[in-house]
Design a protein that fits this description.
alpha/beta, 12 strands, Aspartate Aminotransferase, domain 2, three-stranded antiparallel β-sheet, Aspartate Aminotransferase, domain 1, single chain
Length: 421
């Protein structure tokens, strides 16, 4: 049929930039092309054996489960967050989903009001809201302010609305794409504005475990517990992105939202498979057994991020040192005049030229909500063999030289390309 009508909210939606670049680079490598893959943020480490074995032992379980998730998993999640972060959620506050991405989509579907979105932000937040027909109010942040949203900015945006009108603020820390971690003092200041302006916060804490900043864990939960929903899952800290186990934790005072979410789950994904939930129970309930392995992973994430930061700044790019997650967000603005002579005025063209001439894959910053003319790119720091990296015994230089060869080659090639302009 030629005249198929598509929902107008979806006509402009394209495939996620992160997934698209990963498919593209895998195809290039399959052809034998050598490419440094800075485009896709997937933890390269093996899933801890304890979790894998638990998945195998429950592979025969195939029955439908309660939509909100197994009670044992909900309880394990609550205990983990209580012990690790001192969160005070209850078992009934947890709703398990096939990935935190799905949790966020369902929450945005249910909650009325505009989405207030600091930019840069993760690529899927705005498209999800667009699919749902929500108004998206992007709030630009600055390199000088570490790309943090501040209370004055939020207050100014809220002045355009009635204080009583419900609004949604989506925050992500440690942050994708910047690799930076909000300090608690900023959350405290934002919380005051949220309380005064009827803002519900969705705190995407998928990278909470991948935090190597010097400070203690920070979260809007501590400043605004009655108005903050937390989303997270197995994918980043446990290196299990393909397992698709996520969840949200909703404050006890939001009973109408819980009831509505339960109903929506029953009409959409029904439940997460039992083998995956059993594996997640093992991850959260026996974290002490795998913690040494996870901490080694974090040390390696820190080393790779700091190496790229050092190389980028030495080349002349503007770039913050990552504090968590596995990303950094370099700006090519210092090369703006040189790039203009090559007819490169925007980040999309910049990334295309870098891939074409330097065999380095990056994502344009505009995919994350910044202006294309800012010439920013999102870089993932994980293009290496995680299993080999886990053999690391404290020799950082040897690790970089032997295991992180793609990172080194990518930086060398990028430097050569920029110096040759």
């Amino acid at each position: 049929m030629k005249n198929i009508l598509i929902n107008p909210n979806l006509k402009q939606i394209k495939e996620s930039a992160t997934l698209n670049i990963n498919i593209k680079i895998k195809a290039k490598r399959k052809k034998g092309e050598k490419v440094s893959h800075f485009g896709f943020g997937e933890s390269p480490f093996p899933v801890p054996e304890l979790i894998v074995n638990e998945l195998k032992s429950h592979a025969d379980k195939s029955s439908y489960l309660p939509g909100e998730g197994l009670h044992e998993l909900k309880h394990a999640i609550i205990n983990y967050y209580k012990l690790k972060f001192n969160y005070n959620f209850n078992d009934d506050d947890v709703f398990v989903a096939p990935g935190s991405k799905e949790s966020i989509f369902h929450l945005l579907k249910l909650l009325q009001g505009p989405l207030l979105l600091p930019s840069p932000s993760w690529v899927s937040y705005e498209p999800q809201a667009t699919i749902l027909g929500k108004d998206v109010i992007k709030i630009p942040t600055s390199f000088e302010n570490n790309y943090f949203l501040n209370a004055k900015q939020l207050e100014f945006i809220c002045s355009e609305y009635e204080k009583t009108q419900q609004k949604i603020l989506l925050l992500n820390s440690p942050n994708n794409p910047t690799g930076l971690v909000y300090p608690q003092v900023i959350f405290d200041e934002l919380a005051k504005v949220c309380k005064e302006n009827n803002i519900i916060v969705i705190s995407d804490e998928i990278y909470a475990g991948v935090n190597f900043s010097k400070g203690a864990h920070s979260s809007m939960v501590y400043s605004y517990p009655q108005g903050t929903i937390v989303t997270s899952g197995l994918s980043k800290y446990f290196s299990a992105g393909g397992y698709r186990v996520g969840f949200c934790m909703i404050p006890d005072n939001m009973q109408p939202l819980k009831k509505a979410l339960n109903a929506l789950i029953s009409e959409t994904y029904s439940c997460v498979s039992e083998p995956m939930q059993r594996a997640a129970i093992k991850a959260y309930s026996e974290i002490d057994y795998i913690l040494p392995e996870l901490e080694i992973n974090n040390q390696i994430h820190k080393i790779s991020g700091e190496y790229l930061h050092q190389r980028f700044t030495s080349i002349g790019l503007k770039c913050h040192k990552p504090q968590g997650a596995f990303y950094c967000f370099p700006s090519f603005e210092p090369f703006k005049d040189v790039l203009a002579k090559q007819n490169i005025y925007d980040d999309i063209t910049l990334c295309e030229k870098i891939l074409e001439n330097a065999n380095v894959a990056m994502l344009p910053g505009s995919e994350f909500g910044v202006q294309a003319t800012d010439l920013c790119t999102r870089v993932a720091t994980v293009d290496y063999d995680g299993k080999a990296a886990q053999q690391f015994q404290g020799n950082k230089d040897l690790l970089i030289k032997t295991v992180m060869r793609n990172l080194v080659a990518g930086c060398d090639s990028l430097e050569k390309y920029l110096n040759g302009l």
